[in-house]
Write a structure and sequence with these properties.
CATH superfamily of the largest domain: Luciferase-like domain
Structural class: alpha/beta
CATH class of the largest domain: Alpha Beta
CATH architecture of the largest domain: Alpha-Beta Barrel
Helix content: 40-55%
Oligomer: single chain
Radius of gyration: 19 Å
Number of helices: 11
Strand content: 15-25%
Shape: globular
Distance between the termini: 16 Å
Low-confidence stretches: none
Largest sheet: 8 strands, parallel, barrel
Length: 319
C-alpha cells in the first residue's frame, strides 16, 4: 500500500495585540484555500493572553466562506466545556461544512490556569474529564438515542439532531506533548498533533504509540488514511537565518507572554526557503503526514509569508 499523502495546513488566529476585524479573518481562510493549502485551523482559549475568537463559532463562519479546504480546531480545550454542548457545536460545524472537511482537534490545555478557574473546572481533573467527554461526544454523534453513566456526567435516553454530516462524526485528533496525550491519541483518537517536538522525538513517540495502539487492540492505519500523525510547526522565512530566528523568537515571546529564547531555536522552522524545506523533510521522514503551520513573524508580513511558503517550499515538498 502506498504511503499516505503528506498534507499542509495553516493555523490562523488573531493579531497578538488587537482584535482582528472579521473581514481580515475571512481573508486569511480564503487566501489559504486559494494558495492550495489543504487545511485551515484555529486555536482555542476561553481566557488567555491576547484575543481569541471562540473557535467553533468562527469555523462555522469560515465554512460558509470556503468550499474545499478542511477546517479544524488545533486544539479545542474540551475539558473546559460540557461534552453535550461541545458535541452539538462540533456536529453543527461539520453539518454546515457539508461533511468530510472538519477535524475536531482536542487537547486538555493547562497553560492558562485562570481559564480553568473561570470555567469552574479543577485543573487536576482535566485528563479524566477529557476521556469521559470523548466517550460522550462519540455516543452523541451516532445520531441515535444514547445513555451514559460516568464520574462527571450521567444521562438517560438523549439524542442530538441533526447528527454530523460525516457518518459517525468527524475525525478526532488528540493534541499534546505529554505521554498521556500520546496514549489517548493511540488508543482512542483518529490522529495526533504534536507541538514543540523535534523530528527525532516525533519519530520516537510515534513508535511508542504504535505499541500502545496494539495493546488496545487496534492498529494505527496511517497509510490507509484512517489515522493521521500531524505536527503543529511555527515558521518564519527570511534570507538570513539569524534574522529569522531573532524575529521569530521576539514575536512568539510577545504572542504567548513568555520567553521563547532557546525554545524557538529548537522548534521553529526558520531561515531561507531551502533551509525550511530541509526541516520539513526531516519531519516527513519522522512520520508526519499533516503539517499545521503557524506563522511566527511580524503580523504585517503574514499573508506574504503564507504565499512564499506555498510557492517556494511546499510545491516541492508534496512528493
Amino acid at each position: 500500500m502506498p504511503e499516505a499523502k503528506v498534507r499542509f495546513g495553516v493555523s490562523g488566529g488573531m493579531h497578538p495585540e488587537r482584535a482582528t476585524p472579521p473581514g481580515e479573518m475571512y481573508a486569511h481562510a480564503e487566501l489559504a484555500e486559494r494558495l492550495g493549502y489543504d487545511s485551515f485551523w484555529l486555536g482555542d482559549h476561553v481566557a488567555f493572553h491576547g484575543p481569541y475568537p471562540e473557535s467553533l463559532t468562527a469555523l462555522a463562519a469560515f465554512a460558509a466562506r470556503t468550499k474545499r479546504i478542511t477546517l479544524g480546531t488545533c486544539v479545542y480545550l474540551l475539558p473546559l466545556r460540557r461534552p453535550a454542548i461541545a458535541a452539538k457545536a462540533a456536529a453543527t460545524v461539520d453539518f454546515l461544512s457539508g461533511g468530510g472537511r472538519f477535524v475536531f482537534g482536542v487537547g486538555v490545555g493547562g497553560e492558562g490556569k485562570a481559564e480553568f478557574e473561570l470555567c469552574g473546572v479543577p485543573l487536576e481533573e482535566r485528563g479524566a474529564r477529557m476521556d469521559e467527554s470523548l466517550e460522550i461526544v462519540r455516543k452523541l454523534w451516532t445520531g441515535g438515542t444514547v445513555s451514559h453513566r460516568g464520574r462527571f456526567w450521567t444521562f438517560e435516553g438523549a439524542r442530538q439532531s441533526p447528527p454530523p454530516a460525516t457518518p459517525g462524526g468527524p475525525p478526532i485528533w488528540v493534541g499534546g506533548r505529554s505521554e498521556a496525550a500520546q496514549r489517548r491519541a493511540a488508543r482512542s483518537g483518529d490522529g495526533w498533533v504534536s507541538y514543540l517536538f523535534t523530528a527525532r522525538r516525533y519519530a520516537e513517540a510515534l513508535e511508542k504509540m504504535r505499541g500502545w495502539a496494539a495493546g488496545a487492540g487496534r492498529a494505527l492505519d496511517i497509510d490507509g488514511g484512517r489515522w493521521t500523525p500531524a505536527h503543529h510547526a511555527f515558521f518564519y522565512m527570511h534570507g538570513d537565518a539569524e534574522t529569522a530566528l531573532r524575529r521569530g523568537t521576539e514575536n512568539l515571546s510577545c504572542r504567548y507572554a513568555m520567553d521563547f529564547g532557546g525554545i524557538a531555536e529548537r522548534y521553529l522552522l526558520y531561515g531561507p526557503p531551502e533551509r525550511v524545506a530541509g526541516q520539513i523533510e526531516s519531519y516527513k521522514q519522522a512520520g508526519v503526514r499533516h503539517f499545521i503551520f503557524k506563522y511566527a513573524g511580524p503580523p504585517e508580513e503574514e499573508m506574504d509569508q503564507l504565499a512564499r511558503l506555498a510557492g517556494e517550499v511546499l510545491a516541492g515538498s508534496r512528493a
